Amino acid sequence: MKRVINFSGGKTSALMTILNYREGDLVIFADTGREHPKTYKFINDFEANENIPVIRIQYEGGFRGMLEHNKWKHIPNRVKRSCTLELKIKTAKRYLRKNYGKQNYEWLVGFRSDEERRVKGYEQRQAYIHPRFPLYDAGIDKAKVNDYWSKKPYTLEIPAILGNCTLCFLKGKNAIINILRSYPELANEWIEDEELSKQKGGGHTYFQDTTYKHLLMMAQNDLFKGQDLTDLTPSFNCSCTS
C-alpha cells in the first residue's frame, strides 16, 4: 500500500514526517499560494536538513485560480469550505490518480494527542484512503512538538497563528485583526477577492457580517487593543489535511 504523508508546512506535520518517513513515501505539500513566506522557507530548510523530498502541488492558479474557475459565485466561508476541498483534498487526489492510479493509500495525518476531537471527527471520504494518526497514537502533544523544535538548528520562524493561509477566515475576526496590526499588507489579496466577487455579480464575503477591508480598518484603529500573536489560537479548527 502506497503511503502518503500530508505535509502542511508546519512544525507538527514536519515532526510527523521526520518520525515516520520511509524511502518511497510520498510527502505531499498542497500549496494554496497564500502561505506566509517563512512557511516556504521552513519547507526549504526541512528538505535541506532532513534529506526528505517534499512534493509540492497546487491547484491551477492557486487560491485566486479556484475563485476564477468557479466564476466568483462562491467565496469560501466557515460553512462552505470549498477551499479545503478544492485546494487540498481534490488537488492531492488528482495528483495521486494521475501518477499512481486509483490504488489503496495509507494516509498519514498530523493530528496530535491533544486533538482527539479532530481525530474522531475525521471524515474518510473514499474507501481506498486509509487514514492514520501517528502523532496521536504516540501520545505526542503540542508541548512535545515545540520541545522537539526548540532543539533543532532550524524551525518555523512565525507564530502558529500565521500557519496555513495567512488570513484564513477560520482563524476568526479577532485573530485576523491582530495579525493585520503587524502585517497589514496581507489584507490586500483578500480584500481584492471580495471586491472582484462583487464586480462579477457574486457579492459574497468571507464573513457574513463584515469584510476584510473593515477588519483592516479596525486593525489600524489606535483604540483597538492588540494581543501578542504567539498567544493567539484559531477560533475554529482547520482540517486542511483531511
Descriptive report:
By secondary structure, the chain is of the alpha/beta class. The chain has two domains: 2-160, Rossmann fold; 169-231, no CATH class. Helix content is 41%, strand content 9%. It contains ten helices and five strands. Helix 5 (116-120) links the parallel strand 4 and strand 5. The chain is globular, with a radius of gyration of 18 Å.
Keyword list:
242 residues, alpha/beta, Rossmann fold, 2 domains, 5-stranded parallel β-sheet
Q: Helical proportion?
A: 40-55%
Provide the structure class: alpha/beta
Query: Which fold does the CATH topology of the largest domain refer to?
Result: Rossmann fold
CATH superfamily of the largest domain: HUPs
The coarse silhouette is globular
Task: Reconstruct the topology from this structure.
Elements: E1 2-6, H1 11-20, E2 26-30, H2 37-50, E3 55-57, H3 62-69, H4 82-100, E4 105-108, H5 116-120, E5 129-132, H6 134-137, H7 142-150, H8 173-182, H9 187-199, H10 212-219
Parallel strand pairs: 1-2, 1-4, 2-3, 4-5
In brief:
Helices cover 41% and strands 9% of the residues.
